Amino acid sequence: MARNDGIDRTFARNQDLPTLDDVAKVQEHNEREKDSYSNQDIDTTQTYRNIHFKAPTDSYAAMFDQMIADGVISTRGLKADAVKYGELIFDVNSAYFHNHGGYEYAKQFYTDAYKAAVEIVGGEQYILSAVMHADEINLALTEKYGYPVYHYHLHIVALPVVEKQVLWSKRCKDKALVGTVKETVQQVSHSKKWKSQRALDGQGKPAVDDKGRPKYIPSYSILQDEFCRHMREAGFTDFVRGERGSTADNLSNLEYQIQQDKARLKEIQERVRDEESKLAVIQPISKTHAEIDEMGKKTLTGKVTVSQADFDTLTQLAKEGVSGRGQLNRLKEENQQLYSRIWRLQSSLNRLQGQFNEL
Predict the structure, then answer these.
(1) Poorest-confidence range of 3-17, 203-217, 244-258?
(2) Of 17, 22, 26, which Cα lies nearest the Cα of 159?
(3) Which residue from 2, 63, 130, 202 has the least number of CB within 10 angstroms?
């Protein structure tokens, strides 16, 4: 969800998956492999609407190993800790899709977004999975309109592959071949696939800063440009490119969500206090503990008899007590859920703030 300023913005992010544990967690999330989720935004009753533009044929790691075995990719010369997997996330704020008709429009949009991903990645064979999520609810817009509004976005797990020419070495017996191309392989290389590019000035020459140092365009900014260009060429023109420095934009998104959740939390806490007050002094029928104890008379057989008026009063008190406690418990549960959500959002905000500071 982009900033709450009425402007529709594209969002494109490239997330590194440096470890197999990271890969497994992304797979679990993208493919909805769990029965339940701590993320309160995921509505599992709507998961059937998620759309795979390319469904995985096995686990992501197993598919990677099979591609090596089949000679589709090469990891020759890679360090053990090299990044071999990445995840592209393409997105526009929820209001953009809601204002264009919702689910059906999102399907059209992300059909073309997937084509952009194939072009950016370098070929569909390097994509392990591409899925549009349609089961994550936008709480702010849902509350605003009074009915469910979902946040549509696209996850693409892909391998960072570049074409590499392997040359004949000096050990080659045929000296005429030394230095010539021996073979061309599709090398897994995150650093080469997502490297920054030299910026150009108005005359098309390499740009430099005030100190004469070369200027570079970060890879995430290039990704934003390519995604926005492709979608405009596909006919989707009524949005703006995500702001330069998309990490900052993402920070503001989380800050906005936290602000909204804190406002809702404050409202719920006030309702909890109101309900607790009602339980302490029940209206419209109010009785002290002593007055309640005095109701009824014991008979010789040990039974208690009460007047019809006292019986009606006790019945009403019991009904209001049960109803009030049920409402109070629901509010307390929602209160706790919001506390947990704010904690998760704040953790994400702190992580992104660290990344932003590094940039």
Answers:
(1) 244-258
(2) 17
(3) 202
